[in-house]
Design a protein that fits this description.
With about 120 residues, the protein is α/β, with parallel strands linked by helices. The chain contains four helices and six strands. A six-stranded mixed sheet has the order 2-1-3-4-5-6, sandwiched between helices. Strand 1, helix 1 and strand 2 form a beta-alpha-beta unit.
Amino acid sequence: MRALDFPLLADENIHPDVIVFLRKAGVDVDSVSEQGKFGISDTQVLLQATQAGRVVLTHDNDFGSLALMGAQFIGIIYVRPGHIRTDFTIKTLEAIRGNAPEVTPPFILVAERTGDIVKIRVRQL
């Protein structure tokens, strides 16, 4: 499967318009913000995603640290840079959808966009 084929849990730093875009694209995505769980820890987000069989979608690099320290998870999609414009993030996600390799859980996918170029790195753990 490719990373965006998995059900997702969007961290609270993912803009609501990005979530709308993903749903229109047919991606199964739940949202920490829509659940009203503002301010919960990254550990709690990762645990919730894992228990629900979802991959975390985030702009926060702390999730990679948690994963490398041994936390259980299905996958993490880390979109860099974050907190720019919604359309910037959406174009990065389109690049992931079109160019990301197959992944097997647990995985970390980092997509870093500079201008029109998106570099995608995957680490299988």
